[in-house]
Amino acid sequence: MSDPAAQGAVHGAIDAVWRIESARLIARLARMVGDVGLAEDLAQDALVVALERWPESGVPDNPGAWLMAAAKRRAIDHLRRDRMLDRRHLEIARGSREDRADPEAEILAALVDPVGDELLGLIFTTCHPVLATEARVALTLRLLSGLTTEEIARAFLTSTSTIQQRIVRAKRTLREARIPIEPPPATDLPARLQSVLEVVYLVFNEGYSATAGADWLRPALCEDALRLGRILAGLMENEAEVHGLVALMEIQASRLRARTGPGGEPILLNDQDRSRWDWVLVQRGLAALDRAVSRGGLGPFALQAAIAACHARARTPEETDWTRITALYDALAQLTPSPVVELNRAVAYSMAFGPAAGLEIADPLLGEPMLAGYHLLPAVRADILAKLGRFAEAKTELERAAAMTENAKERGLLLGRAAGMEKRMAGA
Amino acid sequence: MRVMVIVKASEESEGGVMPETELFAAMGKYNEELVKAGLMLAGEGLGPSSQGKRVRFDGKRRTVIDGPFAETKELIAGYWLWQVKSMDEAVEWLKRAPFDGGAEVEIRRIFEAGDFGDEFTPELRAQEEGLREEIARKAKKA
Question: Do A151 and A160 meet the contact criterion of CB atoms below 8 Å apart?
């Protein structure tokens, strides 16, 4: 095939096949050879062969099986070499031949093994607690989402060589720690799953709170995270928190296009045009939340999703069920207490039971060191104080918040509100 | 990006003939794969056009036309909504669908520039969403 257009089309198809097949391919190979780094190398080798052959022969009917067969041949070659080395070592060590399980037979057995939890094993390995969080994220995006090192580097606004090193080191750490590539035993599952969910949500937030809007890759991380979450939900049907996380991400993602005005200014939840929410994602989020609830209760992700769902269910801000939201924040504060949760609880209480109830929760937070530089604390207190008619204090708080924020648009907004307090003081 | 995968009507679908059990099973398996891969957002089959209506707009006049409609091949019998990385990925996935017998299935890109694209401007960050994303981030640090 010498026609460049046709060749381009084949390369596009190979790219797409790789996106679809690479995670499963690597997962299965990793299970066979016991090493994610080697598995990725083998899979990449198979891809190189495809890139050489397919432009001539055309893309085969079952490209996934083709790649697997090519990679499998390499895996067997590798293990044969490995076994010969092993034998030589054994002979040197013991001066005799040692019978041991035939690795080739083991591989062939693994190949016909219908158990489809390889992918799950791979996710738990790339998110293993033995790795630093940033290494988990890089390795997961590389091996599970099929992102290139360059794409990951751009998404995290860092250099390709940094990501490259991070991935190389992560693979080595896994090899040296002899981490088995399989889902954890039931006793370890809750803690290990927590680590997986955190990685997925981190990826999501990296895209969701993107500051660099010019780069499409950061927002695209939301899609990658959502896909990882949905894959996980498919593999771990019975885990409530997996559905909780998916629900949270779907509902948050549904608001993406309503969150900013034409000038890029942030639009608060209650001021958003709800018709611009993505209702397909809202419905999917609510359905995922139902699955979380029906699988036994609400963990931290499901609780946050349930709060998001309260907003999603309200057709207008006035219809928001704030009483339910206070109950959910109470539960969240019990499960994962933090000053930021308290601050949100204060907002919810003020909306549900009046400003005095909110202020009672917000005031003690003034002594909280973690919130010392957090502009939303004075901003929230200002709202509550204004509702109580304490405009002068509200004005001071708004000015304090304005001084704390690093975001120019937000500072303008806060100073504008402070000026508004002045007028209300004059009117009072 | 999102695509709509449009399944065209056939004489069978227009005749209200339900697919055979094997095809239902194969389609169910395929749908399951799509869901597990995290790309299927929605999908439905549509009733025959004999149960459908059309409304024609002409000035202020509204004329209701009852089905069935004649041009079978141009009619839609069902659709999927997929979230994919590229049109190529959509094509690769569609190739795996259990259709046969000369069926033609169409993939069309859905316009949604705003979703993850242009409307993301700098300085978006902190204040939105009733603080929820802040919670998640800070709670983790706490």
Answer: no
Count CB-CB contacts under 10 A for residue A189: 14
Is B111 an interface residue toward A (CB < 8 Å)? Answer: no
Amino acid identity at A24: R
CB within 8 Å of chain B, chain A residues 382-411: 405, 407-410
Over residues A14-22, mean pLDDT: 91
Residue pair B12/B113 in contact (Cβ under 8 Å)? The answer is no
**Burial class of residue A406 (count of CB atoms within 10 Å of its CB; 0-12, 13-18, 19+):** exposed
CB atoms B116 and A216 under 8 Å:
yes
Tell me if the bond preceding A63 is cis, omega within 30° of 0. no
Q: Give tens-digit pLDDT for A165-217.
A: 999 999 999 999 999 998 999 899 999 999 999 999 999 988 886 543 444 55
* Helix or strand run (H / E) with residue B106: strand B105-109
The strand pairing partners of A150, in sequence order, are none
Question: Which residues in chain B are closer than 8 Å to A27, comparing Cβ atoms?
Answer: none
Angle at A209 between CA A206 and CA A214, to 5 degrees: 90
Q: A339-353 and B132-141 are packed helices; what angle lies between their axes, rounded to 10 degrees?
A: 150
DSSP string for B32-94? HHHHHTT-EEEEEE---GGG-EEEEEETTEEEEEES--S-GGGSEEEEEEEE-S-HHHHHHHH
φ, ψ at B7 (rounded to 5°): -95, 125
- Token look-up 């088995």 returns A180
What predicted TM-score, i.e. pTM, was given to this entire model?
0.84
Instruction: Give the number of other CB atoms < 10 A from CB of residue A110.
Output: 17
Tracing tokens 């093994």 back to the chain, one arrives at: A113
